[in-house]
Amino acid sequence: MIRTGIAGAAGYTGGELIRLLIHHPQADIVFAHSESNAGNPVADIHEGLIGDTDMRFTDEMPFGDIDVLFLCFGHGKSRQFLAEHKVPDHVKVIDMAQDFRIADPSHDFIYGLPEAFRDDIRKARHLANPGCFATAIQLALMPLARKGLLKGTIVVNGITGATGAGQKPVATTHYAWRADNISVYKPFTHQHLAEIMQTLTTLHDGNTDGHSKAETPTISFIPLRGDFARGIFVTAVVDTDNDPTDIYREAYAHEPFTHYSERPIDLKQVVNTNKALVHCDWHEGRLLVTACIDNLLKGASGQAVENMNLMFGIDETTGLALKPVAF
């Protein structure tokens, strides 16, 4: 069994991680850490787990008793946590925040997008789980990046559910504001752009398929808040001389979770699953790529379990046989 510990377990990603791991046939949760909820039943906070577990939150973190530690903190807290706590060398770390997603000599974290870096993930000791918007956008664009076919300015729009802002209430997650509403935030400056460009540049520069290497493109990304709880739906418009749909079919033909759809896609097809769906429409030199994921699963905790499976050498899909929500 893979012995797991979860730090910051009271938030949305922590709750989804617990839900996945308690049903994972090869994993066991040793502790779910939350100082503010220590001693309280996990199901008192994550009420969807009533009847599934009698686990309680704890303020203890016996690192010596685990094989992997998941960090489910808000952005900026993981680096501080690791500086303040001695995690044994034998314990693998999967960070859900953005603290280590950008490659830097100061750390050895591997960027954990399986569709791009599966072989590196298998050998990783420390892993940075991708951001939710970043996951959807990279899956929308990486088949073209691998062929060196991205060029010019790519216009991307992405709409996300309220859970993307975390569990702590803020003005823009309040029901009275969010319901029957839509709004733009962080246009052109969203924090996930850095990791997106890092991956696309890596794949673009590593192109060995004989295509001429155009200059790495720029991305104009407009994030939007949606009137729904969970999910991300992304559109990207790319200039291409020829219809590249076959490139997408080939790229995702054998992926366990990312699938090319011949038909237009919608959000309900992926909510409550670890799936990513991608669809293409090409018209007179312009390609529209649509992609959708569940932001809490493929965009966070589901992908983290997928990465854990790879890091421990078991089947990538283990514990992730989730079904879409009913209509």
Protein model, in words:
This protein is of the alpha/beta class and about 325 residues long. It is about 25% helix and about 20% strand. It has helices at about 10-20, 40-45, 75-85, 115-120, 130-145, 175-180, 195-205, 245-250, 300-310, and strands at about 1-5, 25-35, 70, 90-95, 110, 125-130, 155-160, 185, 220-225, 230-240, 260, 275-285, 285-295. Strands 8-9-7-10-13-12-11 form a 7-stranded mixed sheet, with helices on one face. Strands 2-1-3-4-6-5 form a 6-stranded parallel sheet, with helices on one face. Helix 1 packs across helix 9 (about 300-310) and helix 4 runs parallel beside helix 9. About 45% of the residues are buried. The model is unreliable at about 210 (pLDDT under 50).
Rg result: 19 Å
Spatial order of the strands forming the largest sheet: 8-9-7-10-13-12-11
How many β-strands, per DSSP?
A: 13
- What's the SSE pattern? EHEHEHEEHEHEHEHEEHEEEH
Biggest beta sheet summary: 7 strands, mixed
Level of helix content? Answer: 10-25%
Q: Span between N and C termini?
A: 36 Å
Shape, principal axes of CA atoms: globular
* SS-based class: alpha/beta
Low-confidence stretches: 208-212
Number of helices: 9
Kindly report the average pLDDT value.
92
Beta content comes to 15-25%
